[in-house]
Amino acid sequence: MSRSSRTLNRMLLALLGTAWLALGAVVVLWHVRPDLVHAALSPLAATAAALDWTIVAAAAGAVLVLLAAVHGATRGRGRSGDAVADHGIAVDKHAVRDLYRLELGTMPDVLDVDVQPWWARRGRPAWRIALHVRHGARLDEVVERAATAAERTQQRLGAQVPILIHVSGGLRAAVASARRAE
Question: Which residues cross the membrane (predicted)?
């Protein structure tokens, strides 16, 4: 999610949340003090009767169409299914993940590997490699081998892309059992 769409989403959520809170307050106040609500809303009733509601509905519809157009125009950036696209040849992210796993080798502390390609600024590809490690793993060894595997993967694919290696643990890592071949 880009920073601009995140800001737009937060603004819309804040606006809708404030509207729902105000409506809820009016409903609660209507049950507690109906005379107060009636006195507060009676001047609005005359104004509301004087409005041309077709124009109000058309304006609201135009605003919604504009917001939908802005939302649609900002989608499609960021994540990609192709990790490498060069000279009309595209390599799927799953193939890059499998190659990276092969280069990483067998490490009992690494539970899972995921590769997510991104389109960075100016249309340049970048990779985010997520390593889920076991609780208590030697992180220095994991990071060193992960960096080496990333370099080798780039060399084998002939791609020079920026790579972010994200090492994480958590509940999944804490409860995972050792992998064994049966």
Answer: 49-70
What is the pLDDT, as a whole number, of residue 180?
A: 47
Q: Give the pair of three-digit tokens for residue 16.
A: 């809708």
Q: Are 37 and 22 in contact (CB under 8 A)?
A: no
| Domains of the chain, first to last | 3-73 (no CATH), 82-175 (3.30.70.1350)
Confidence of residue 182 (pLDDT cuts 50, 70, 90): very low
